[in-house]
Design brief:
- This protein is mostly helical.
- It has one domain.
- The protein has four helices and two strands, in the order βααβαα.
- The protein has a two-stranded parallel sheet.
- The chain is elongated.
- The protein starts with a strand and ends with a helix.
Length: 117
């Protein structure tokens, strides 16, 4: 997994550029019903969003899921060994932060697109 807390603004990201374009299928041009089919990259990995979205999710406030108990579970059912693929708690928090940042960034872009429609 990879991520980037990018410097700059929404409009400098590919998804921000797409959301900021004036689409000809506006409500004014088409009436009350509009269908917009727009492809966005986020929130798929790599999780890239402006740093401001990462700042919404401080690492120290990100709770990790409790590790499930493994007692009594047959060995073939334990496909992930060690638990969480051995990723440190700090790296898990960073990945969760990046996913949340990317998702919030996309929510903002969809909002811009809908406001322009």
């Amino acid at each position: 997994m990879s991520w980037l807390a990018a410097e700059g603004t929404d409009s400098e990201q590919t998804d921000g550029i797409g959301a900021g374009r004036r689409h000809p299928a506006s409500r004014a041009a088409c009436g009350s019903s509009v269908l917009l089919a727009v492809g966005f990259y986020r929130p798929h990995t790599p999780y890239v969003a402006p740093k401001a979205y990462f700042d919404l999710y401080p690492l120290e406030k990100i709770a990790l899921a409790a590790e499930p108990g493994r007692e009594g579970v047959p060995a073939p059912a334990l496909t992930v060994t060690p638990a969480n693929y051995g990723i440190s708690a700090d790296l898990q928090r960073q990945a969760i932060q990046a996913y949340h940042a990317s998702t919030s960034f996309m929510d903002a872009q969809v909002g811009k697109l809908l406001d322009a429609a």
